[in-house]
Amino acid sequence: MIELGHYCLIASLVVCAFGMIAAIVGGVQKNLPLVRSAENCLIANFVILGVASLCLWYLLLTDQFLVEYVAGYSATDIPTRFKFTAFWGGQKGSLLLWALVLSFFSFLVTVQNRHKNRDLMPYAAAVLLGTIGFFMLLLNFATNPFETLNFIPEDGQGLNPLLQNYYMIIHPPVLFLGYVGLAIPFALAMGALISGRLDTSWLRTARRWTLVAWIFLTCGVTLGGMWAYEELGWGGYWAWDPVENASFMPWLITTAFLHSVMITEKKGMLKIWNFVLILLAFELSIFGTFITRSGVISSVHSFALSSVGPFFVIFLALSTSLGIFWIVYRSKELHSEKRMTSFLSREASFLLNNLLFVAICFAIFWGTVFPILSEWVTGEKITVSMPFFNTVNLPLGLALLILTGVCPLIAWRKSSAKNFKRNFLTPLGAGFFSGVVAVALGVRDLIPLIFFSACGFVAMTMIYEFYKGARARQTIRPSGFLLALMDLTLMNKRRYGGFIIHLGVVLVFAGIIGSSFFKSEQLFTVATGEEFSLGDYTLRFVELTDRKDPEKDVVFAHLAIFKGGEKIDDLYPEKDFHHKSEQPMTEVKIRSTLKEDLYLVLSGWEEGGEATFHVFINPLVQLIWIGIGIMVLGGMFVLIPNKQLGPAVALKKSSLEVQDEAA
Amino acid sequence: MRLPNLALLFLFLGSFASGQIFSPDETVSRIADNLMCTCGCPHIIGHCGDECSVAPQLVHEISQLVTAGNTEEEVYKIFEDKYGLRVRAVPKAEGFNLLVWVMPFVGLLVGLVVIFFVINRLKPDDSNQETEKVHTEIDEKYRKLIDRELER
């Protein structure tokens, strides 16, 4: 298996090199057999990397500790599911997973475009093969997962206990699906630029792939937050850690692109800007992998430090230069087809929306890399952490939230004063009402009040759009309101799917504000049988005991939870002492309701039987997870194709398309 | 009950929680939220996980300094002298490090200026105004028609 794995990596590199040359030559010479050969290389690569991955999984599941990676990230006593996930527990496996997922997506895009986008596909294939090739270079020469040791250890070191969590089974691959998904729109964009086929047909394919990547990124980033919330034991879900930032930045740019592409498809504007966003999103996805795996910036996520950094820097520089060159080269052919009429138009508000997304991304990028920059210039190590990101992003986030509500209310081309009054009155009323409700519920701080009012304003905008649309639909086809609403939503999945996503965004903002501004926490040291209170909760410390699991010793406390004098639950927060790790792990216990989370941490204990608990009450956290769920569902809804859509633009058939039809 | 050796680390925690409740006052919390934990993690003191035995010591240290009459800025300075510049969660806004605060807003401003010019450049010239006006009038006619239909 070890040899087979090695051979697969070498074969994949050879296939990438051949395929890339075939794709470029085939594209330039309009030679269909050569192009087909390159596309077959993409398909073959998926098979080869699939076999390589199966080899690594086999080695992990059968405890082959001769392999350095298996010895480093697995052990005999860890559960099978974690042996399986050890695949992406370290750098080498993660990079193989990247290549595997990219080869899978490349396989899908090849099959999808077998008979369309023919002019740009050779160059898109070349870009994809080049990207996979880069990872194969790393895997063959810098960080080979099949590398063996000089001896066979009795047991492996085991997986980092922080990663032995069910969110970690799914978080990395889902996030990778998002990162890697961004390579497809990038390849299509490069294909369009190089081939000069700049009509909107490629954009439609790229948009759908970007949406797929966006859905995975949304899920991946959220799963990471959920993991941090449950596993790190500090009562929060987002710490602006460099790796968290690295996963959030491509999400922001992808979201900006999904907005700007609407202007391009509807109005023929912002064409160059779309290419810039796609390029940026791809580079940021590579940057994210670079940050996670190079260890260049201190992070809890940088589980492995290695020498892959320079490779990533070279690849980032090359791919960025290539992208910029082709955008500049084609810039004259990317003129806007229509003109902007007014600053008070939906087009202008979309531009502002894009600016805010990019500004937030820039602020995060700047804060993430500034310590390195500062060290270069001043020679002193500094830190840029949570207070910076919170302070900078708070006003930008508020502006973005308000704009989410404003955009749909402004007319295309130009808004009149009458239009403003008619459209804004109801949502503004709802915003004011939300503020009043918040005050009545005891909110006194200005910032949360503004945010909650903004949430009410945006939510009403979305609901009002559904209402107005359904009423208008009823006048065209008389039916019940609900039927008209369903009809309307199904007829324009993109528009109303987008509104569903925005409703999710409102919940996320409400959850973030609630859990950030109204969180309460306290440290208690109590004896067995003693009671203590925080907020509406009274907790009784029943006992402290321990148990032995195969891979760890566990010390856990039994706490009875009371509310309003009635017992509502029993919770068992614990401390795990993994046999193969020197660091004890906190296993928090959370009692979740829509209103708030009761979050319990067993912090310590004394011989006399006293124990120390860190107790948090985190309001509205569940709204965040529900909101993100709605966002993902909205995204999936948008993905459902509209049957009535025809070909985007009928253009003269290219040489490759004629050959393809003849074949 | 068997207590693993590492658990001894946590005995330390109890010593800070003298009495039943340990609740650092607001100043201590605010200072702890602006200083990094020195255990090697990338978190601020207030957010360092409960595995960390260093964070409670640091909170205790801050508490003592505040009780001794030191101002917030003096506490930062004492920590900076003891643990280095890295202990500040955000560098002091002076010299080169001022850029960390300035650049995001400069970026936003530049973006706004660019948008202003883009919109101005993309705005139709005067010769197109008439056509635009006709379109707006037609749009308004349709809108009135829709409004009437909705009112029925």
Verbal overview:
The complex is a heterodimer of chains A (663) and B (152). Chain A is 63% helix and 11% strand. Chain A has 663 residues and is α+β, with helices and mostly antiparallel strands. In chain A, strands 2, 3, 4, 5, 6 and 7 form a six-stranded antiparallel beta sheet that branches. A four-stranded antiparallel beta sheet of chain A has the order 1-10-9-8, with helices on one face. In chain A, helix 8 packs across helix 11 (271-294). Chain A is globular, with a radius of gyration of 27 Å. Chain B has 152 residues and is mainly α. Chain B is elongated and about 75 Å long. Chain B starts with 7 loop residues before the first helix and ends with a helix. Helix content of chain B is 59%, strand content 1%. Chain B has helices spanning 8-16, 26-32, 54-67, 72-83, 99-122, 129-151; one strand spanning 21-22. Chain B contains six helices and one strand; from the N terminus they run H-E-H-H-H-H-H. Chains A and B meet through helix 13, helix 14, helix 16, strand 1 and strand 3 of A and helix 1, strand 1, helix 5 and helix 6 of B.
Which residues of chain B sit in consecutive blocks of at least 5 with pLDDT less than 50? 1-24, 126-132
Number of strands of chain A: 10
Classify the beta-strand content of chain A into a percent band. Answer: 5-15%
Judged by helices, strands and strand pairing, the structural class of chain B is: mainly alpha
**What's the helix count of chain B?**
6
Give the averaged pLDDT of chain A, no decimals.
87
The number of strands of chain B is 1
Indicate the multimeric state. heterodimer
Give the structural class of chain A.
alpha+beta
Q: Based on CA inertia axes, which overall geometry of chain B fits?
A: elongated
How widely separated are the two ends of chain A? Answer: 40 Å
Order of helices and strands of chain B: HEHHHHH
Measure the end-to-end span of chain B.
78 Å
Mean pLDDT across the residues of chain B is 71
β content of chain B, as a range? Answer: under 5%
Work out the helix count of chain A. Answer: 20
> Main sheet of chain B, how many strands, which sense, barrel?
none
What's the Cα radius of gyration of chain B? Answer: 30 Å
**Largest contact between chains:** A-B, 80 and 68 residues
Q: What's the shape of chain A? A: globular
